[in-house]
Amino acid sequence: MAKILQIETATAICSVALSVNGKTISFKEEQGHNLHAANLTLFIDEVVRTAGLSYQELDAIAVSKGPGSYTGLRIGVSTAKGLCYALDKPLIAIETLEMMAAGYLAENPHYSGLICPMIDARRMEVYTSIFDLSLNIITPTEAKIIDETSFTDYLTQETLTFIGDGSAKCAEVLIHQNAKFDEANFNSATYMSRLANEAFGSSNFEDVAYFEPFYLKDFVVTQSKKQQAQG
After folding, report:
1. Taking a C-beta distance cutoff of 8 angstroms, is the pair 47, 5 a contact?
2. For the segment 148-169, what is each residue's pLDDT rounded down to a tens digit?
3. Any residues with CB less than 8 A from the CB of 112 and at least 6 apart, and which?
4. Three-class SS of residue 190?
5. What's the distance, CA 9 to chain centroid?
6. pTM of the complete model beyond 0.90
7. What are the distances in angstroms from CA 85 to CA 56, 155, 184?
């Protein structure tokens, strides 16, 4: 029985789950800015205790690898790697957008279109990709600036449902009869369970020493106008 601790910190949601053989048995999550550093380890401890397990009973640690928030991903991956080192357990990395698409399909089993997860970047830019019903990648992950012509080739052929915290700001420009929007939370570690269990069964593990989050874009430090004036 694969017992996997799962961590998702790619967005403003701090989410932890524990699964056994691909089924979530315990989870804790909360949404808000700057939660991850203070709450992640507390959430992990609560989830493990609620499941009635010890840390040594875990078989692997899974983490949402990105894309997403630079700070959130860094905290999540650092914590996951620390647990792997301390417990001598393998590390599983789950692509964040794939996890979101898997979550949408889990909640909508009769859906028959394409899924486009979106993570908010800034202004009209999102981190995004398109998946089919089997979670095959239709378009590779990219940082995309959205306008009224985006995804036209797909929208003219079939239903395309946009999900994630980046989709709401795109609803005003992506106006098409085949464009659907779902504002539910799919950045939850609970939606990692099946994917993490499949990875565990295939021994699809990361090198703990060298693994880094999938940031997609370099982190850029910007200065406030006051700092620029003083500089």
Report:
1. yes
2. 999 999 999 999 999 999 998 8
3. 133, 159
4. helix
5. 7
6. yes
7. 12, 46, 35
